[in-house]
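To: structure subgroup
Subject: Chain for Friday's discussion

All,

I'm putting the inputs and outputs inline so they're searchable in the archive.
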Amino acid sequence: MRTPSRGGMLSLAGALVAGGLLVGCGKKEQVKPTPEVAVVTMQPEKVAVTFELPGRTSAFLMAEVHPQVNGIIQQRLFTEGADVKQGDLLYQIDPRPYQAAYDSAAAALARAEANLPAIRKRAERFKELLAVHAVGQQDYDDASAAQKQAEAEVQALKAAAESARINLGYTRIVAPISGRVGKSNVTPGALAAAYQGPAFTTIQQLDQVYVDSPQSSAALLGIQRNLAANRIKGSADSAKVKLLLEDGTPYPQTGILKFSDVTVDPTTGSQLLRMVFPNPRHVLLPGMYVRAIVEEGVAEQAILVPQQGVTRDPKGNAIAMVVGASDKIEQRTLKVDRAIGAKWLVTEGLSAGDRVVVEGLQKIRPGAAVKVVPASSNPAPAAPAAKK
């Protein structure tokens, strides 16, 4: 076997070294590709600003029916759950004792009124006789006093007869308002005690209903600041209100904010809002749990950023990555007001024209250069956020 010469070995070694150098040069020439990100350019939008509150419904008018005289209930003259009109007879209390009292008072009044003309004429005659000194002054004074006493007695008996008539009328317990009557708490044969015990029944007017809901006083201060800063236009005291029923179904009628309490509850830090809703089909019943969506106002120049473009730093502050000059990443700290659909309403930190990164956040850091590509037409939905 022929051994290679020394010159050949040197040539081989040189070739290997050159090959290594070439490989090393090839690795140095590899450049890490620029990360691609999808952005959304911020544009001012006109949006209705709302807040959602839990609440309970209550009747627009409600009247408890109580007896005003004592006696035995003879009849109940209504159907439980039916609609009644003001003045309809609901219960009949035994009227006989009160009829007798009224008849007695009326008879006493009639007797007094029958005696009064004669007493008046006697006083008039004594007055004429006194003028010609046919009777003494004392006789005239006695006749005049008798007339005044008889007239006063007639007035007292009229009052007694009227009181007896009113009590007789109270034996007919009628509906004080129009509305829907509830269940009856008494039956015929029961003893009615005037102004005592539970109500016989309750009538509630349901053509309109109230929705009472507490609102945080801090939220009220936020509304006032937004109005003062012209971020929104409108007034919470004249807002339109929509309603979600207990099962999440939207209520078809729109209500109005009727009343805002002037006192903050110190135990809860909230104040009461009262809203009025039309209820022509009586879908809303007193005591139902509902959610009211109150239109706070209109933001004419709102900045809305997709929720997937907003993250949180270790301190919990909202942050967004923005593609700035020279296509480099800038980190912005935001102040978000509330969620509107799948977007955040941003009050500070972003302005019109800013390009917010919504895809590719995991590949970038502040100061890095990026390549901007169009955002996906159907981005992944963000996690649901609680409304304010």
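Points worth raising on Friday:
Residues 21-26, 378-388 have pLDDT under 50 and may be disordered.
The radius of gyration is 45 Å.

D.
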